[in-house]
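Hey team,

Filing this mostly as a record. A colleague (T.K.) asked me to run one chain through the structure pipeline before their review meeting, and I want the input and output archived in the tracker in case anyone asks later how it was produced. No errors, nothing strange. Just documentation.

Input sequence:
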Amino acid sequence: MQTPPAPPRPILIASGIGAAAQFLFALNLTRPSTVVFDETHYVPAARVLMKLAYPTNTEHPLLGKALIATGMTLFGDNALGWRIMSTIAATAVVIGVFAILWMLFQRTRTAVFGALFVILNFTVFIQARIGMLDGFMAAFVILAIVALLRAMRSPPGKVMRRWILGSMLLGLAVATKWAAAPFVAYAAIAFLVMRRRDAAAWPGLRPIPALLILGGVSIATYFLTFAPAFFYAEEPMTLGRLIPFQLHMYAQQTQALPSHPYQSSWWSWPLMIRPIWYLYEKVDGAVRGILLLGNPAIMWGGLVAVAACLVIGIRERSIKFFGVAALWLGAYLIWAIIPKSLGFFYYYYLPSIFLCIALAALIDHRHGKWRHWGLSWDWAYLALVTLLFVMFYPIISAAALPNDQAFLHWMWLSSWP
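Output structure:
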């Protein structure tokens, strides 16, 4: 009897999807050749950090700017150098989402859907191609979730090092942007809930040591990322100033700011009421635009998926589906209490990634049930997502537009211009 072929190895499929994502994110990366949107803050800050000159852009920790500086060191102080590390971070998000879905559902198909949704969600594509901090923060959060989930079902000898790795990654996320700090608390809550439901989770790792390691390692990792500041030529950091400097950052982040044309309230982000023009001007010989917008099929359909996952989680007492919904709820609702005087749609970046996970989870739950007239609706939905990506590609990729009024073709809502 002939032995049936072995199923495809997920690691090979994940690598292929990651390679495709990296190619797409890096395609025409240097377009435009000028700084875009908040690159006006972070690229100059990275230049200063490369020289270890003096403190600058002090409202955020150092790590994200250090990563931008790394790209500039490797590829030069140009558009490629400013943005290359962001493409790698976005690819890590794609592969990380694949891994999360594989570990949750043990189906390659589900993981593939989720990873493709991430690639085709405009928010991920755009943040992959700009030198900003949010892409790095999201990558560290996603990879931390991967590490902590792997630790949950690892052999006893590997649990501790994977738990430590996840804690380190959370510390790195906070060292990029403080908006990641709630995920340290979320990890602690998830650990306690899962251990109460399943004593076999994280075998050999007792609650008190686990929480002490999570908190201690993440905090230590965070503070270690300030090491370059101790070598500034002017106003170098000292151990005595390290804690007061955190208070200075808090004051900077919570200060009252003047109104901004693209500001928006947290409740409006899921509806995409006020997207942001990162670029709309004549540059590099043509009118070009970059509109930070989400793929409508993912951003609006994902809300239905989150609600469905929450209902499934409660009705079926499924911690997987409840956890998927909780990822989005935790990443989004925290903005209702974060003391920021202004809000912007790009703060929704991390929740927009969790929408992709919710969609893939719902497709997994309904697999084989969404067929009509021979049509599989999950593949039809992916086709719709892909079609929308192609349709909007010119104004998310800074492609040359025919004239300065061409943007009207994509303005679906009156609040979008």
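Quick notes for T.K.: Strands lie at 276-283, 286-292, 371-372, 375-376, 400-401. The chain is about 60% helix and 5% strand.
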